[in-house]
From TrEMBL:
Domain of life: Bacteria
Record lineage: Bacteria, Candidatus Moduliflexota, Candidatus Moduliflexia, Candidatus Moduliflexales, Candidatus Moduliflexaceae
Pfam family, one: SNase
Protein's UniProt keywords contain Transmembrane helix: yes
Name of protein: Putative thermonuclease
UniProt keyword Transmembrane present: yes
Source organism of this protein record: Candidatus Moduliflexus flocculans
Residue intervals passing through the bilayer: 6-24, 193-212
Record key words, sorted: Membrane, Transmembrane, Transmembrane helix
Domain TNase-like: from-to ranges: 33-182
Amino acid sequence: MLSVQSVFYFFVYFACFVVVFMKTEHSQKTHVKKKRCKVLSVYDGDTLHVEWDESAWLGLVHEVKPVKVRLAYIDTPELRYHQAGAVQAKDVLAKMLNGKHVVLEYAELPNGEPRKCDFNRVLAVAHLQRTFLPNININEFLLQKGYARLYPNPDNVVPHQLKRMRQAERSARWWKRGIWRHANAPSRSSGGAFWYIALGILIGVVLMLLLMRQP
């Protein structure tokens, strides 16, 4: 039979576990923030150097520092391993962003710090600002054009963006763009093509019925 002391210690340990667990969960809770930054340089196809403005409340403390940003959800070929497509991904990104301003969507932790990857880079979705045209979602663009692939098990820092990223990669794989040109991607002549054929048949039947009803 368990002693009173054993039961007491059990509940103490259990309470400590619950408190630690709740604090850990709370510390991981984030909310999405936006920050306008100037791109200083492009390191590779998915990493930027930007000017990060650390202005405090009412601008009483103003600090601008260089920060590395890792484009969330995506993974481009590695330059250091001389992987095919690595140079193209970097060149495209540099041409689009060097010296330009972007709006970064990122997850802010309760302590006010942005969530970072294992290599201490801010994880963000970058939007290129354009004056008379809609902004460009850079992460989505790189996926859609086949310069990048979706990162396996990505850190979901901006939840509302994940679906768009998946759709962008699916489009690139379907049309065999960029890195998918010679990859084992789904063929346009199979799989999803069935639905296009079925839709065509359905439209044809409807048109025939409409024509038959005409006097």
